[in-house]
Structure formats: C-alpha cells, structure tokens
Amino acid sequence: MIRSLFDEIKRAKKALIIGIGGAGDILGTIPTMVFLNKMGLETIIGSIIWERIIVDPKPGPRSIEELENVEIISSSVCLADKNVKMKHGPVPQAAYVSKILSQKVVLIDMTKNPLETAKGIKEAMEKLNIDLLFGIDVGGDVLATGYEKDLRSPLADSFMLSAFSKIENSILGIFGIACDGELRREEVEERISEVAKIGGYIGAIGMFKEALEIMEKLSEGMYSEASKLPIEASKGYRGIVKIREGTREANVTIEATITYYLDLIKAYEISPLAKSVVNAKSLDEANEILHKNFNLFTELDFEREAYKRKTTSYRDIYKI
Q1: CA dist., res. 182 & res. 249, Å (int)
Q2: What's the pTM value of the predicted model, to 2 decimals?
C-alpha cells in the first residue's frame, strides 16, 4: 500500500527532521519544517555531527562525547543550543542555526555503527515524544548506486539511510536535486522513479516564502554550497555552478526548490550502498565495505588524506 504523506502528518504528534548528508544539510530541513508547521505539526530539526573540513579539520564525524554544552538524550542523540562546541575547538554550524531560530536542535552521532545509531535515535524519539522521522538529503546522492562517476560522499548517506531503515515511520526527503554536483539531475530523477515503481513516492512540496526567508537568513553564516543553491534557484537562477573549488559542477534549475518525499524503507530496498553497510560493526568497517564492494573514495578518505597532507583544498586531493 502506498503511504500518504498527509495521513502520516495527521497521525503524528511531533516530527524530527534530520539533515543526513553532512552538517550543512540542516539548511535543507527548513522547507520541510515550515511545511509541517503550517500543517500544525510540532517539529525539531537537526543534523549529523560531521562538518566540512573548512569548519572542523579533524577527519570524520564527531561523537556526542566530543561535544560540550549539550544535553545527551541517548547513546547517539543530543540536544544542543547556541552554546554547543567541540572539545577540540570548532563550533558546529548547528549552534548558529539554534541561535538564529531561537530553538534547540538535535545532533546525531554516527561514529559507531548504523544499528547503534538507529537504537539511539529510537530511544531519543521516545523520550522526546517524537513519532515521525524525516531524513533530508541535499542533492540526491543518497539514492546513488555506487557506480556514478562523480559520487564523492557516499559514506554518510549510506550509513544514515541504513540506520533510518530500522526506524518505523521514517520518510526520506530529497531536496536541491543535483545541487551537490555528485549525481546528475537525470540520475536523481531516475532513482526517484525507481522508488516510485515500487510504491515509494509519497509526495513533494516547493519552497514557501517563509522557508526562503529563513534559509536566506541562515545562509549568511553557514558553510554549505549545495544547500544554498536552491535559494538562488527560487529567484530564477538556472545554469551550471562550479562548487568545491571547481572540482564539481551543479546543474541548478527550479527543480532544486522541490523536496521529494519517499518511503524510506523502499528507498533503502533499492540502495546497494545502504544495504551493504547496515550490519557494519563500525564506521571504519562501513568505509572499508564501500572500498571493497564499490571501489569508492569516500568523504572520510578525502578528509584523512587532506589532514595528512595539511591541506583543505579539494583541487589538491582530487588532482584537478
């Protein structure tokens, strides 16, 4: 049976909306937050604790134990406000979001393994009276097969998709199609259609004026090239934008302003990447599986190489 987005919302009391592709994806949660609020549903937004190297040069995601000034809710979830910071210095972008929105945000620890992350999220949802979960990916590379030539950040997406697949009432949102310069627009569209073929397409929304205003305000103090491009698309920009120091090209169209909602379990079912890492015992094991099974150079590999070579340049690492 095909799920109804409106029925899911009507049944829910409170929704958790998490940017799953990186810390900057929290910006991509705003259209969903505004939409759900207009529907009368209480929401809380958040992200995984994995900043770009320009914010946090230490490779990989952070654990909740590496954070200060947070309220730990479970083994993989904490609540944070504008005062959150990492013990080794950097301030997560979520602190800025919390400050501007005047509300606490959720941070997800993905340093252990997908099943432990899922267990912690479920426990936190119970404690916070949350009964509907949205995972938002900016760009659409969460739907990758593993063989796309420009795929650059498969680890966080596959890890989090596999974790969310263990949680009932979970929905996958694809926002800002092709804005991360990894999967081409046509590739994302094809994958969405594949999910639709098995009854997994459950709706879509555009960007309301209120969402655009919030995103514009947040974007002034955030590092997220991909998540900012839908703002330009909403103002009529259409064309190719070079991002990550020119190492990627994002094809920006008005379609970037749409959030597509998919049955997350069905999206997981067609994801060879997520299914391959779901039982990994650690983040490193998940990373090695992507090496072995798909010959992928992941975002974790990139950060470790950048740290070793004392550079933050994408062009240096990818030799472009």
Answers
A1: 8
A2: 0.97
